[in-house]
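Structure first, sequence second, as always.
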């Protein structure tokens, strides 16, 4: 009788175990990833800052949304972020109603004709600050640029001559940010500033000071080619 009770008890435990069994994690369906496909323009956005936010080529983003140079956008405008299959091909004609650099503005602001952008044909790259790289470029660790501790003061210079296409603090994680366009394919960014000394649309030379760092005197610096982060040392070294 005792043996039968033990068998019955084991059988009961076995049934109970089966009823609470859950499949291993690897056999479960993974939830679908959420992909952002549109962006609603906020005041202060430029097409360059939006392209930077989503790692996109600004020219392809403009073409996908039929936006002509100098890439004027309006607050509240919804942009498609889908550049798949978009070809640069023939440029969209420049509109005389566009505003230089393309910062989003309220509709009541008067618009002026665009100014032509002129870029240096012979780029000579330099370090934006003199100091030590304390965090290197490492895409696998989500580090798209360099963190540089300055040992020569808070002044920041352009890594190469160009035109300022974004000034502001609208990109999360960058603080006060300056983006400079050096050519149709090369941009650079200077983040975590305490004070910005340039404005959008301004042409800057290598020896100009574009911003000042805060007390920590640490600059975050990126270079992007066709919208994609690249190792800055490839250009500077």
């Amino acid at each position: 009788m005792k043996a039968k009770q033990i068998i019955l008890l084991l059988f009961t435990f076995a049934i109970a175990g089966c009823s609470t069994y859950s499949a291993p994690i690897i056999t479960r369906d993974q939830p679908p990833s959420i992909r952002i496909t549109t962006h609603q323009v906020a005041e202060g956005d430029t097409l360059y800052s939006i392209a930077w936010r989503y790692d996109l080529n600004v020219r392809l983003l403009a073409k996908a949304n039929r936006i002509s140079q100098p890439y004027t956008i309006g607050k509240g405008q919804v942009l498609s972020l889908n550049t798949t299959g978009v070809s640069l091909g023939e440029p969209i004609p420049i509109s005389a109603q566009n505003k230089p650099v393309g910062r989003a503005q309220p509709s009541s602001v008067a618009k002026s004709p665009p100014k032509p952008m002129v870029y240096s044909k012979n780029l000579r790259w330099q370090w934006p600050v003199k100091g030590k790289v304390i965090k290197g470029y490492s895409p696998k660790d989500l580090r798209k640029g360099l963190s540089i501790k300055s040992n020569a003061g808070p002044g920041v210079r352009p890594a190469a001559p160009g035109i300022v296409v974004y000034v502001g603090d609208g990109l999360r994680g960058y603080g006060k940010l300056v983006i400079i366009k050096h050519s149709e394919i090369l941009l650079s960014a200077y983040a975590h500033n305490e004070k910005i000394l340039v404005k959008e649309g301004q042409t800057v030379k290598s020896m100009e000071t574009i911003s000042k760092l805060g007390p920590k005197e640490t600059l975050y610096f990126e270079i992007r080619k066709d919208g994609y982060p690249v190792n800055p040392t490839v250009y500077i070294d």
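Margin note: The domain at 38-102 is CATH 3.10.350.10 (Membrane-bound Lytic Murein Transglycosylase D; Chain A).
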